Amino acid sequence: MMNKDDEIAVFRYGIIAPVIHDDAINRSNYFRELAKKEFNYPGEEKPIRFRYRTFLKWLHLYRKHGYDGLKPSTRNDKGKSRKISGSQKERIKNLCSEIDFRTVSNLYRYLVGEGIIQAESFTEATLRNFMKANDIRFKPEGKKPRKAFEVPHINMLWTADIMYGPYIKSGKKKMRSYLFAIIDDHSRLITAASFYNSDGSLSLAKTLREAISVYGLPQRFYCDNGKVFSSGYLNMLCAKLGIALIHSKPYDSPSRGKIERFFRTVRDMFLPMLFKCSELSFESINEKFKTWIMEQYNMNIHRGIDDTPMDRYLHDMENVKIRTLTEQQAEYYFYNTIYRTVKNDGTVTVNNILYEAPAKYTGRKIEIRFPLDKPDDLRLFEDDKQCAVLKKLDKHLNSELKIRYSKEDENV
Fold it and tell me: Deepest of 146, 188, 226, 300, by most Cβ within 10 A of its Cβ?
């Protein structure tokens, strides 16, 4: 009686034998036809298919190692990660022995944020498998005494955080998505949440602007110590808006329990729905997600408050004076800033597009601002005041017109 390894080797040999012993058979056509069929493979309960390249691999192994080459091989590095370098391993082990990250997700976010690993080539699953195989545990700490906490009114405290989302198609590539979300502490209402292809300050600012445009300004904004939440941009924005920016203690995710609980609900209830979708884009996933937030999460009874987040928010509005921003004010506060030097021909380049700048700024470095949702609406600022709106260069029009300078330009 054959063991399983021999059964597999015999099966594989039966597939490649015709190619080995009959020169008249066209190897490529033969294997491509087999790739369309299903086979009862040893050890498998259901018939399975194989790729064309799999058959080529079996043929190569047989010609190189004979019959034994067709037996299934066991990796000699099983239990070890092939994506973690020696220095990374030591760094991870040392961090876990010094700090109680509490969850692998917290550790993963820290490693990515500090640049120790790259999210594109190093997944959270890789980290989990590495820690499990090497029996790495976090430094034990005594449990901190905690009490249930809730502010008395809406907009007194908003909590923000980031969750690593699924890979989403963007053009011809698939990119890691990042879910930015903001929750109102009193009502548990999600004031804004969206998936982005970047975990930077711009994504956070877009989420905060969306929340403020609908629900007004919060008194306090609570988040962790990640780079995006401790950036100078966010500190300046909150200072201008009169919002107190508060950071939790490092790696203390339980202090942000409400937003963490929301992320768990997203993983359990929303993300599984996406498996039915053949292809996802950032537009489609955000459209589905916002519908789910408005029609399900914000409208369902929350056990912690025995009410729906939306109803609880609306009921408390009469007890609170909500500060709002006009659209013009929002554009003034929420903008992105870039700096460019004006060339000798009076132009600047932004995203590979030429824009015209006033002649008096030729050779000077200028500050350009644009609204978060309008990257083509470029405005020149000087001393925090708007001086001009930059227009795309029209070379054909410029060739037909004489250059005219204003008196102001001539005096410069």
Answer: 188
pLDDT at 179: 95
**Rounded to whole angstroms, how far apart are CA atoms 296 and 114?**
36
User: Is-contact 102 253, C-beta < 8 A?
Assistant: yes
CA 322 → CA 219, 325, 368, distances in Å? Answer: 10, 10, 32
Of the CATH numbers 2.40.50, 1.10.1660, 1.10.287, 2.60.40, which one belongs to the domain with range 335-410?
Answer: 2.40.50
Type of residue found at 217: L
Res 141 pLDDT > 50? yes
> 166 to each of 163, 175, 262, 272, 273, how far by Cα in Å?
10, 8, 16, 11, 12
CATH of domain 157-328: 3.30.420.10
Write down the pLDDT at residue 20: 83
Q: What is the pLDDT of residue 220?
A: 93
Q: Which helix (H) or strand (E) holds 258?
A: helix 257-265
Same fold flag, 157-328 and 335-410 = no
Radius of gyration of the chain, Cα coordinates, nearest whole angstrom: 29
Tokens of 179: 């879910």
- Residue 361 backbone phi and psi in degrees, to 5: -95, 5
Please choose, from the candidates 338, 341, 346, the residue with its C-alpha nearest in 3D space to the C-alpha of residue 393: 346
Q: Is 373 exposed, middle or buried (0-12, 13-18, 19+ CB in 10 A)?
A: exposed
Amino acid residing at 245: L
CA distance 94 to 107: 12
> CA nearest 371: which of 326, 337, 325?
337
pLDDT-based confidence at residue 232 (cuts at 50, 70, 90): confident
> Whole-angstrom Cα distance, residue 209 to residue 143?
37
Domain ranges of the chain: 4-70, 86-133, 157-328, 335-410
In the beta sheet, which residues pair with residue 392? 355
